[in-house]
Design brief:
This protein is of the alpha+beta class. It is 30% helix and 26% strand. The structure holds ligand EPZ. Ligand EPZ binds next to α1, α5, α6 and α12.
Length: 439
């Protein structure tokens, strides 16, 4: 079983280049189904979630041509499939973004059938707002036996007014994709404003759509008959960049993080500054420096432009060694998204979780242990903690981490971290609970 082995306690130095945004890529690739022509996508992250989606599109009949490691040409002109075949179900059940295939197939063909989506397991993840939006566009949407079936009345979606009861990235994306070629005008209110929402809107518009207002809380779409091919470059990944910023805060050192949009990192930078981490913004980079003690702070996650929930585990890992008590409150996901706290406690962290908040009592240092990546961002938090900890940390189930981080081991090694990916059997649980004492 592949695991990461980290000999912690070494400050990080050097420069790291951020890859394309995972949550933009997993929206844009399914959206390409709507396009009759060649979509050239640049700055695509090399991660397992994009690999899976490209594989699914190939299976659906798209021409997929990798130009280089981060550039792909997709031609979905001849895609006719509005029902994902059984061979694809295992894959669509693994990734959250598979539900964007519903919006795309429905928008293109007037029909869609796929499995319920997968994704990180941190509590209930309903899709009622997706169904509300697609229904408003004139689709009959049914969920039966783990599948979603959608059919547009009269064969084509019609523009509509949609008010989202809850700010939802996924529902905003799904409705935007489906409405791009619906007949007439769609107005979606109370939408998500994340950078990847804006990126999808920019992609659709570069392919001939008419989407306005992305980044605000109201998106207006005039349906067009067809979308043509074109070239689009994805934005850099806000959360990957934030994860490297958190790693420098935890392990110490000085790192230049390049290929970022500092505006997207403002909430992360301001929190780290509260913790006495030095952040200097450049045009397309941030300089992060920490060589003194950390200061405690409190964090409450909110939809963008609030503090991102996908940075919550990583920041809790940093706060483990900030003197005093820090409170981390999860404001986006019910059930708190705190499963990783048990893994941090194996490393000596002092954290109590009460409902949606984690109370983090700073300790002098963390100690290496054998821990699990409970999900994508929880796994990233284990890397952050392992880099700061004294001794050796072994992280199991790293397949979760590789869903969303391109070459995380290589990038951290280039910053001087002693981290390697090894293939060895998992330890029996008993040893794991005893924690890992540095040899
Ligand atoms: C996206 O998930 C991201 N995933 C998540 O990132 C991220 O945590 C989340 O947005 C919030 O930013 C992808 O983009 C692939 P939501 P999504 O719909 O779309 C509730 C990562 O680490 N809700 O914005 O599933 C929901 O329960 C992943 O990259 C409904 O009630 O999230 C939650 O409380 C993990 N009904 C809140 O809204 C719905 O129909 C936000 O969910 C949809 C959502």
């Amino acid at each position: 079983m592949e695991k990461y082995v980290i000999h912690g306690g070494k400050p990080l130095h050097g420069q790291v280049d951020i890859s394309g945004a995972k949550n933009a890529a997993v929206a844009v690739i399914p959206a390409a189904i709507m396009v009759r022509g060649v979509c050239r996508l640049e700055n695509l992250p090399e991660i397992s979630d994009t690999d899976k989606l490209l594989h699914i599109l190939t299976y659906m009949g798209a021409q997929v041509r990798m130009i280089n490691r981060t550039t792909v040409e997709l031609d979905c002109t001849n895609v006719q499939m509005d029902t994902l075949p059984e061979e694809m179900w295992a894959m669509t059940r693994k990734i959250r973004a598979s539900y964007y295939l519903i919006g795309a197939m429905l928008g293109r063909f007037g029909r869609a059938r796929s499995t319920m989506p997968g994704g990180c397991n941190f509590g209930v993840r309903p899709i009622d707002q997706h169904i509300k939006g697609l229904t408003a566009l004139g689709a009959d949407v049914r969920m039966t036996g783990g599948f979603i079936n959608a059919t547009a009345k009269n064969g084509r979606l019609r523009g509509a007014m949609v008010y989202l009861d809850k700010v939802s990235v996924g529902a905003t994306i799904n409705i935007m994709i489906a409405a791009a070629t619906a007949e007439g005008r769609t107005v979606i209110e109370n939408v998500a404003r994340e950078p990847h929402i804006v990126d999808l809107a920019n992609f659709l518009n570069s392919m001939g759509a008419d989407v306005r207002g992305a980044g605000t809380d109201v998106i207006k779409i005039r349906g067009v008959k067809t979308l043509h091919g074109g070239t689009y470059t994805l934005i850099p990944d806000q959360i990957e960049a934030g994860t490297y910023m958190a790693a420098v805060a935890a392990a110490g050192g000085a790192v230049k993080i390049t290929n970022v949009i500092p505006k997207h990192l403002e909430c992360i930078s301001s929190k780290l500054r509260e913790m006495d981490v030095e952040i200097e913004d450049g045009d397309d980079y941030v300089l992060v420096r920490r060589d003194g003690p950390l200061h405690q702070t409190n964090i409450k996650t909110k939809p963008y432009p609030g503090f991102p929930t996908d940075m919550q585990p990583q920041m809790t890992a940093v706060l483990c060694c900030a003197p005093g008590v820090s409170v981390v409150t999860e404001g986006v996901w019910n059930g708190g998204r705190f499963k990783y706290v048990a893994e941090l406690k194996k490393m000596g962290a002092s954290i109590e979780v009460d409902d949606q908040s984690a109370f983090v009592q700073g300790v002098d240092h963390l100690t290496g242990a054998t821990v699990k990546a409970c999900d994508l961002r929880a796994g990233a938090a284990m890397v952050v903690a392992g880099l700061a900890a004294e001794g050796v940390t072994k992280i199991e189930d790293v397949v979760y981490i590789e869903r969303g981080y391109q070459d995380i081991v290589g990038k951290f090694r280039a910053l001087g971290a002693d981290i390697a990916c090894v293939d060895e059997p998992d330890e029996p649980d008993a040893e794991r609970s005893a924690g890992w004492v540095a040899g």
